[in-house]
Amino acid sequence: MSKLLINKLxxxxxxxxxxxxxxxxxxxxxxxxxQQLLVHVSHVDxxxxxxxxxxxxxxRVLHHFPRExxxxxxxxxxxTQLEDAPSMGENISTVGxxxxxxxIGDILQIGAVTVQITQPRSPCFKLNLQFGHKExxxxxxxxxxxxxxxxxxTPGIIQLNDKIELVERRTDISVAEAMSLYFSPTxxxxxxxxxxxxxxxxxxxxxxxxxxxxxxxVEDWQMRLYGPSGK
Length: 231
Hints:
Elements: E1 3-6, E2 11-14, E3 19-21, E4 24-26, E5 32-34, E6 36-39, E7 62-66, H1 68-75, E8 92-94, E9 107-110, E10 113-120, H2 126-131, H3 136-143, E11 148-154, E12 156-159, E13 164-168, H4 175-183, H5 189-196, H6 203-215, H7 222-226
Parallel strand pairs: 7-8
Antiparallel strand pairs: 1-13, 2-5, 2-8, 3-4, 6-12, 7-11, 9-10, 9-13, 10-11
């Protein structure tokens, strides 16, 4: 039997507007509120990403971000009082569900759409530009208040008043723990083996972990966290 996680969504968002932010194309600030999302296996109608290599694709069709995280980022003075959903570029916003409560590989039912959690969001320097704080991406990485991505198992329509139910739990690694294992600066082969073998994990994360194991080192994160101009 399915387990109810959320009784009602807080918001649905989509958009095709891309903008130039300090010479970088991004769609993070182009989402608008919607009453429903028409979800396909590979995309959402009326939604777009500026960087398909790192956003979108079959493992990242929908981005879910807990709305209460905005309050925490405000308390840390990383965002302003006016910044709220969908400033993170999310498609789905909820209150009452966070990274410790959902696992990699979880199969969820959201309205008519069946999804699987594939990975946490990997914070990048575009968040620094979005919120005007050069350490925002690093703060998200360290706090694990990142949201997560879904692949689509059964396409359909998600409505604003839909519930989120847990259909099946496939692994014992929460989204928060996946962040902790993946973004620890210390090389840990056993942790990488455990995470890479996690059912449902996004292929890009599996490949990254396998590269670390092959090279016996953790990649440099400076470009991702701070962009071409660095710190």
